[in-house]
Amino acid sequence: MDNKRVINVPFNREQLGVLKAGDYVYLTGTLYSARDAAHKRLFDSIIMADNGIMGENATTGEGLSGKELFDKGILPLDITDNIFYYLGPTPAKEGQVIGSAGPTTSSRMDKYTPLLLSKGLIGMIGKGKRSKEVIESIVKNKAVYFAAVGGAGALLSKCIKKSEVIAYDDLGTEAIRRLRVEDFPVIVVIDSEGNNLYETAVEDYNSSKSAR
Amino acid sequence: MRTINTDIVVETVRDMCIQANIFLAPDMEERMRKAADEEDGILGKQIMNQLIENMEIAGSDRIPICQDTGMAVFFVNVGQDLHIEGMNLTDAINEGVRQGYTEGFLRKSVVADPLIRENTKDNTPAIIHYDIVPGDKLTITIAPKGFGSENMSRVFMLKPADGEEGVKAAVLQAVKDAGPNACPPMVVGVGLGGDFELAAKLAKKALTRDVNSHSDKEHIARIERELIEMINATGIGPGGLGGKTTALAVNIETYATHIAGMPLAVNMCCHVNRHVTKEI
Ligand code: SF4
Q: E strands, chain B, where?
């Protein structure tokens, strides 16, 4: 890559337009790690709070906003305009910021994702396909899904300059961490218009091959 | 009769856990480098280059190749003329896992109960498959298994009439369904024959076989070659983003089966296909 495109994170929704499926970019700024167990807790906390306010319809995403959920102490962070990295790292040795730190499979977070997006989450980094519901929710809420290279945990750990557990410490590797990243390499897989690189990239490769 | 003490088993297993998670086995490393050289997909090539760099950083900085350091799966061959003193052998292997995953800063990814899901905090218990074999040696193979790819594995209870075509179609389907979730380029372990559970065990065992090798059975070796070609023709490629190498190898292990059936298991593994064997 000659033209290295660095994107500062987090970003706001106006900046989403420049991220197109297929873009290879480097993220610099703050991300939050969250995977299965943390997602379940966040999800359950939101549902409980919204149910208290509005009864059965909590999953529609009405109710408290991401900021209100944080201000009221229901969520341990304000997810508004933030990016979740689906990560459960290996423990850091003496002198390391973090251990091996690659992405985990995103589809396990699908069940929780539309609600989190409706509360303001703007991006996700993981690997692998997303459900139809998640893709629809990405378009509806204007968000973005990136893939990091699966199985490149040693390499990716070098782009993490600071790591601090901010919530759910008891979950060990699954705790929520605030991560300071520099030039963290990702590929836009699903952009805010719903273009899906997993569908187009393989087709493009195959047609380029048959054209040769 | 030869006698060994389980202390040596604990120590060996501890070291194997660490080695397997930091250094890719030589057969895998060779295969990965070849795939990186040959890749002609644009994103695929970038991803392969990152994976090679990742492998090098892991080795030089002693960082696990992947953060999912897996569930510790073992194939243990116990020579029937060997006498083992000390602890129970299973406890010794688990003690080795406990020490290896703790001292090696590996991730503890095991929960004690599938529904309650409380982490055991030391990556035990391991999954151990024992075989009694002739001789007086203890041969231990560890294959730490990540679950991104494990979750994409399948068992098919095919019918005899499905034949070779049925086998190929099922394996290909499993690979397509796995796609980017299994961190391609993948290694595809296939167990064919036996019964329901043996097919699955053979599929896992197939993953521990050298990725540059083929089955000794000529017709199976041919199917391995044909399958790898079919899989790589999908264009799924590294990271599922288009390219030449979707699978690095297809390894098939077979066993006798019943007149009424043809069990087939496909155990998906990613490019972090870890395996180390030691003989005591
Ligand atoms: S599937 Fe393999 S490479 Fe991918 S995250 Fe799991 S263990 Fe790592």
A: 2-5, 71-79, 82-85, 127-133, 138-145, 154-158, 186-194, 247-257, 262-269, 276-279
Q: Is the pLDDT of residue A59 over 90?
A: no
Q: Touching check for A159 and chain B: CB below 8 Å?
A: no
φ, ψ of residue B10 to 5 degrees: the values are -60, -50
d(C-alpha B110, C-alpha B97), whole Å: 12
What residues 176-215 of chain B have any CB closer than 8 A to a CB of chain A?
179-181, 183
- The per-residue pLDDT for A61 is 52
What residue ranges do the domains of chain B occupy? 2-19+66-144, 147-273
| Interface contact A205-B237, CB threshold 8 A | yes
The residue length of chain B stands at 280
Q: How far apart are CA B45 and CA A24, in angstroms?
A: 13
The closest of A103, A153, A104 to B147, measured between CA atoms, is A104
Our answer on whether the CB atom of B153 is closer than 6 Å to any ligand 1 atom is no
ipTM of the complex, rounded to two decimals:
0.92
Residues of chain B with pLDDT under 50: none
Q: How confident is the model over A169-183, as a mean pLDDT?
A: 96
Task: Please tell me the predicted confidence (pLDDT) of residue B106.
Answer: 97
Task: Output the CA B71–ligand 1 centroid distance in Å.
Answer: 12
Domain chopping of chain A, boundaries: 31-211
- Separation between Cα atoms, residue B160 and residue B145, nearest integer Å: 31
Q: Which residue of B lies nearest to A174 if distances are taken between CA atoms?
A: B109
The fraction of chain A above a pLDDT of 70, given in percent, is 94
For the stretch A11-27, pLDDT in tens is 989 989 899 999 999 99
Q: Tell me the pTM.
A: 0.94
With 70 as the cut, is the pLDDT of residue A44 above it? Answer: yes
Long-range CB contact pairs, A64-73, < 8 A, 24+:
A64/A119, A65/A119, A65/A120, A66/A119, A66/A120, A66/A121, A67/A120, A69/A45, A69/A119
Q: Reply yes or no on domain B2-19+66-144 having CATH 3.30.360.
A: yes
**Cβ of B239 and A101 within 8 Å?**
no
pLDDT category, A1, cuts 50, 70, 90?
very low
Q: Which residue of B has its CA nearest to A128?
A: B181
Q: Which pLDDT value is given to residue A212?
A: 65
The alpha carbon of residue B167 is apart from the nearest alpha carbon of chain A, in Å, by: 24
- CATH of the domain spanning A31-211: 3.20.130.10
